[in-house]
Amino acid sequence: MADSQGNDAQNGQPKGQYSGPRAIDPVEEHSHDDDPDFITRTRFLSGVAVAGGVVLTAAILVPIVGFAVSDSVKNPPDHWVDIGPMSNFPDGQTTSIAVSGLSQWSDARAFVRNKGGQLIAIWNRCAHLGCPVEYFRGGDNYVCPCHGGAYDSLGLVVGGPPPRPLDRFNVKVVNTTGQPVGGVGSVHGSWSTAAVGPTDHLLIGSAFSINQNQQPYSLHDPGEPVTGTLSNLYPFS
User: How much is the average pLDDT of 167-195?
Assistant: First the structure.
């Protein structure tokens, strides 16, 4: 029975209020709005997500930027190496010679092609994975024994997996006083043998890459194309 004020007539408690035993008293919640050092779970997870995004972005951008600028820094200035008199490189032949002292490498092998009044020096490093290619005088061509890469007499790709032709070295011919003899050839890195004598010396300089049209590019690593869509995606292609 309840009185006119809404209280239970028997125990004097407000009508409808539970007066029995409690399983647990409610815990008073504390606000941390005034504590700058307190980190909520949401705030912590947000920080982790942001940090992870920064790391992922850096992992993607750093290689791209590195490869974008690497061409401007990986080729040192020309350093010429005297590989002997022109009598060692007869007209109409391709001569294999080991070259030591180039600033980029401790040693390298070049195929000096003296044909058609023009000198070119082809690097024996396969453009696929860097294996040493072999020159076959009978066919006047180059073959890589590792994966079957095939190149013609100018080092241009004719078969197999290489993504570009064989790289070349810059060449020039000088007389005994160090003055150039002859002149620049018809393609980049070549040298005209006009007026060149047997006692003049052949010098080899820095290496560079070419495409199938013998157009020059900065030196690329094995497996790296110089033209086409894949050249923009390397090394992620």
Answer: 94
Spatial neighbors of 48 by CB under 8 A, at least 6 apart, are: none
Secondary structure element (H or E) that encloses residue 50, with its range:
helix 41-70
CATH classification (class only), 81-233: mainly beta
Between 10 and 22, whose confidence is greater? Answer: 22
Check if the beta carbon of residue 104 is closer than 8 Å to that of residue 207.
Answer: yes
Number of helices (H) and strands (E) in the chain: give both, helices first: 2, 13
Do 149 and 126 form a contact (C-beta atoms < 8 A)? yes
Q: How far apart are CA 156 and CA 167, in angstroms?
A: 9
- Whether 1 shows a pLDDT value over 70: the answer reads no
Q: What is the pLDDT of residues 72-101, one digit of tens each?
A: 444 445 689 999 999 999 999 999 999 887
